[in-house]
């Protein structure tokens, strides 16, 4: 057991950690409760199944923090990024993937390794010996959640996460909708036409907001309380914050020209992004929702171009959980009370596919070093990976700890650069140049 790394959870973080450890020559056992124990959001028992969006967000490694994180993971030989690049879909400046092909790729690569074993079982306790990484994600089982509470004496924190609906492409009226990425972003014609756009005039937008606010919503169970993660708010919650909120958020009309009526400026625009390589499925961007299924179909068919929409999946909402990592984990992501256990992924309080996988990558590298008797220098906080792990292991305020995407606000400032919006491009380029150099140095030190 001392030479075997056990990983609990086969999502993004667990799969990435397993890949790192297996490539380093360790025997790896992945304990994945699916499909034996189902979750609200998952449909299969495959590793690295994507359950919400199919987007890894911006791929710009010079001006965007998540794009920088993509770069760092590619430089480290990430399986997540290899799968994403192999099954990439046109998405303007974003990195979107065919979710089924992506998961199958990761699943096949890991299950095909002779030193990786996948066991379909639920782990409901925290082991006292052996080398373990718990990467159970935001849908950590109730039994394991109780074990974490019993061990740490701290209540889990929680937030509600919502899923956007998916529409069959053949049911979208292309005499109304048109293909265009915002500001025509993208290096190829496919990328510049990666999104379908459905325009609304002011009267249609106001009627849509009225219907959205009046629609029947999912009720939570008694005693089930949590906050929403701001990066994944249900659209009706955004609408409740003000009638113009959606028009300045996922329905903003900027950077688009209606191909059917180029002289007319839309009051609001609903975008759909391709969800698979065949182009048969599109998800409605930013339209996470807690409306009941019947209400969803009725309200979303008010969108011009979607009057006859057929849905492959309607939206939904589920409770996600995460730990108060600043109080529970040490600088190497180990549980302070049981240092044979590391935690990684969304359960630690990072938010997003790439952020979760990055914490899996780091946890895997730290576990390999520990098992093989080597030491790694701390990850520079000037890198995207380092900024994230520094945040969750002590940089964040424990009393107000909430899930966090990677962003430049987590990075140490670069001295001598102008603050404010005018100096932003130079400042971001300085952040990313520094991060790339420091990350390459850290990787070289760990060889």
From TrEMBL:
Keyword field contains DNA damage: no
InterPro entries on file: FAD/NAD-bd_sf, MnmG-rel, MnmG_N, TrmFO
Lineage: Bacteria, Pseudomonadati, Pseudomonadota, Alphaproteobacteria, Rhodobacterales
NCBIfam families in alphabetical order: gid_trmFO, PRK05335.1
Keywords: Cytoplasm, FAD, Flavoprotein, Methyltransferase, NAD, NADP, Transferase, tRNA processing
EC number: 2.1.1.74
Residues involved in FAD binding: 9-14
Reactions it catalyzes: uridine(54) in tRNA + (6R)-5,10-methylene-5,6,7,8-tetrahydrofolate + NADH + H(+) = 5-methyluridine(54) in tRNA + (6S)-5,6,7,8-tetrahydrofolate + NAD(+); uridine(54) in tRNA + (6R)-5,10-methylene-5,6,7,8-tetrahydrofolate + NADPH + H(+) = 5-methyluridine(54) in tRNA + (6S)-5,6,7,8-tetrahydrofolate + NADP(+)
Name of the gene this protein is made from: trmFO
The protein's name: Methylenetetrahydrofolate--tRNA-(uracil-5-)-methyltransferase TrmFO
Known role: Catalyzes the folate-dependent formation of 5-methyl-uridine at position 54 (M-5-U54) in all tRNAs.
Subcellular location, record wording: Cytoplasm
Top-rank lineage group of the source organism: Bacteria
Family: Belongs to the MnmG family. TrmFO subfamily.
